[in-house]
Amino acid sequence: MFGLGVVSAIAFSVFATLGTASAQELDFANSDEIISTLGYQEADVSASPDGVSAPETLAAGYSLVTLSGDDANAAYLNIVQYPAELDEATAIEQALLAGAGDMPQEGWTYFGGANTPELGEAETFAINLEPGEYHWAVSYYEPYSGGDEPEAFMHLRPLTVTEGEADAAAPEAAVTLEITDELQYIVTPDPVPTGPHIWEITNTGTDHAHHVVIFSTPDDVTAQDIIGEFNAMMSGTPMACEPLMAQFGGGAYTALQSGGQTTWAEFNFEPGTYAAICFILDPETGRPHVLDGMVTSFTVE
What we know:
By secondary structure, this protein is mainly beta. It has two domains: 31-162, Immunoglobulin-like (Sandwich), CATH 2.60.40; 175-300, Immunoglobulin-like, CATH 2.60.40. It has four helices and 17 strands. It has helices at 5-18, 20-24, 88-99, 223-235; strands at residues 41-48, 51-53, 57-59, 61-68, 74-81, 109-115, 123-129, 132-141, 152-162, 175-180, 184-188, 195-203, 210-217, 249-257, 262-269, 272-277, 295-300. A hairpin with a 3-residue loop joins strand 10 and strand 11 (184-188). The model is unreliable at 6-24 (pLDDT under 50).
């Protein structure tokens, strides 16, 4: 999955211990049963070695954005604004650093996006955009299958959002996930009910951009257990037993969001225990946020 930059080497080494087959059997919670019926204007975005396709214009207001790759490549998307002084090559380089390297760039605004959950499957999210000039930051890459980290290819496509009739209501969310400047995820309600539900994901802070990476975990694993293990792995401390990450299952992902931004996604989680984790690098300390406590455990029942 895109967006595990600094810790990707650790993650890949752990998944290697599981074997490629196990890593490919992760069951993700992405769903579109409800969100596809909202009736908003639709924007289809696709990315593969054959090219990138994305709308050049949208009307202001709510949109349903559907991202797809192909049978061999996953796809990643974020809707962004970047500093006007950047040339295209630099902007592409910085977009890749943010998406694949977990390194948000100075002067950029990340409005949110998605990553395709499985090869050949699409992912849909809702977003509310105001009139203005944006870019689709779209990438495709081959999923990790052992060996070297896969190469990702980033493209920037312009998007103009025109004046529109802002009469549509926001999606009705059954679950909210608030992202704070205190490096917290707040999931409401907890426990989360089973079944397909729309999640409202809002970064209410102003200081940091964050993504959301959700894994299923063993029932007795706490947020502090996860934080402690990642700190141990980053310091090179040998594991006394099987790493917790080797026991993680599939979950969900939403792309970088700057402060003040909201997206809506639909997830269908099975009963169990889950952890929301942020791997984004703090621009001041250079440390992934997970090391400083940005992990929240929640249950689904």
